[in-house]
Specification:
By secondary structure, this protein is of the alpha/beta class. The chain has helices spanning 30-38, 57-70, 81-86, 92-102, 106-116, 119-143; strands at 10-11, 16-23, 39-40, 46-54, 77-80. The protein contains six helices and five strands, in the order ββαββαβαααα. The longest helix is centred in the last third of the chain and has 25 residues, at 119-143. Residues 134-144 have a biased composition (Basic residues). Residues 118-144 are annotated as: Disordered.
Amino acid sequence: MSDYKETSHIYEANRAVGFIYHSGYGQISYELNHIIWRIVLPKDSYIFLLVADGGREMDAIRLVAKELEHRGHQVTNIYSEYFFDRYHVVDRAQKILTDMEKGESIWQKEQERLKKMDRKELRHHLKENMKNYRSYKKRKKNRK
């Protein structure tokens, strides 16, 4: 990341761009913010986020997605250790490459599905997901 510290614009010609970062208790580093502010991408790029670890990883994902959306880019997929464990993904790199080849957006499909739910159904869904996430974090903490 330090290579881009002094540049005013970062031009990326690739159609697939990934941001792999650590969640610092729901915050992202200034270096990552600096790259997001200055990166120039094609509007139809495949952008994925991968949170390596850290506390409040969902907040960090939401923060980066909001920053990219503010710049006019849509996040195609998001990944975290929780998602990989939840869906029993063994080869994580292969999963990301397969999703890139397919070009499908699991995250956007989930967003659309949530928009179609009524309030009661959405509240129940979010409550279940938070319950599962908390128990996952507790199990992970006890394993260490």
